[in-house]
Amino acid sequence: MPTRDRKQQASRTWKESQDKMNWWIECGDSASLLSLIPDASVDAVICDPPYPEINRSYGRFSESEWHTLMRRVVSECRRILNPTGSAVFILQPNSERVGRMRVWLWDFMAWTAREWNQVQDVWWWNPATPPTVHCHRQCGLMRPSVKICMWLGEPSCYRKQDAVLWTESKANAAVNRENRALQRKPSGQSMRAGRCASLSDERGGVTPFNLLPFSNTDSLNSGGAYGHGASTPLSLSRWWVRYIVPSGGIVLDPFTGSGTTGIAAIEEGCHFVGIEREPDFAEIARQRLAHHSRQGRLF
Asked: What secondary structure letter does DSSP report for 116?
């Protein structure tokens, strides 16, 4: 079938699916299937792509192969996003050997920032990360427990800060309410703690930091429980859906894996479209999303 006819058919299928279904998972190559999705039809892309130079059940990407794939994926994601939409790619750096980091992640960060726009640097910290070979006494390094949430989009892209405010600790809140004097920081900035406390009361929480502490410890319901070795915690996925997806919007994950982002979208009352290359994982994702839909969590 000619490419133009395939795109027209895919566009019709897309519209019919969104009218009838709240989620949809397709098995196939991410870049190829993304090319069939209509322009400006998705509200957010949230995904945890494979990393280069890591052995997985689905194979191993060299750094060159990974960059080729991701440049195609990023280009397509930018095309299919609504003008106010944005994309989050969750990525973790890795090492060539102990004491020598690979630079693919920083190359990717620099390229996306130049070619598109990095809205803000946001990092996920997994405080439950177990010790690795880096931590052995003879190596003397630290636990690699932080991943970047590469947030790409236009500077004015949609975000709802009130949906992700943090609850302040009682001890910290008490100090802020007592200390109403003007405080000057070493950087020269100043603030009134009392004013910050009153705003926190008014809004129902405090402004979140760009370091997101979510432990990846659910061994029963996470993607890891279904055999996927690189699953993002559901709590982190739900946080991003609440933050960057308008009510009832469409979330797309071009590297669906076991479907955690889809479950997050469903539980937050959104539509979900997933693409997964590996048939076994695609079927697991379908089963997980069908299970959550049957439980009545959708809308």
From this structure: S
Paired tokens of 194: 């009392």
Q: Which domains does the chain have, with CATH numbers?
A: 3-162+208-294 (3.40.50.150), 166-206 (no CATH)
Q: DSSP label at 206?
A: B
Q: Which of 12, 89, 31, 94 is nearest to 275 (CA)?
A: 31
Q: What does the angle CA 197 – CA 201 – CA 203 come to, to the nearest 5 degrees? A: 115
φ/ψ bin of 61: left (φ > 0), alpha (ψ from -120 to 50), beta (otherwise) = beta
Q: What does each C-alpha distance from 86 to 32, 49, 76, 159 come to in angstroms?
A: 20, 16, 12, 9
Token representation of residue 180? 């109403």
Q: Express each pLDDT in 47-79 by its tens digit.
A: 999 999 998 877 889 999 999 999 999 999 999
b/e per residue, 222-255, with b = 16+ CB within 10 A? bbbebebebbbbbebbbbbbbbbbeeebbbbbbb
Contact 266, 9 (CB under 8 A): no
pLDDT in tens, 8-44: 565 555 555 555 568 999 999 999 999 999 999 999 9
The DSSP code for 232 is P
Burial of 39 (0-12, 13-18, 19+ CB in 10 A): exposed
Structure tokens at 213: 């502490």
Beta strand 81-91 with 146-153 is: antiparallel
Return the axis-axis angle of helices 104-115 and 63-80, rounded to nearest 10°: 30
One-letter amino acid at 244 equals I
CB 91 within 8 A of CB 83: no
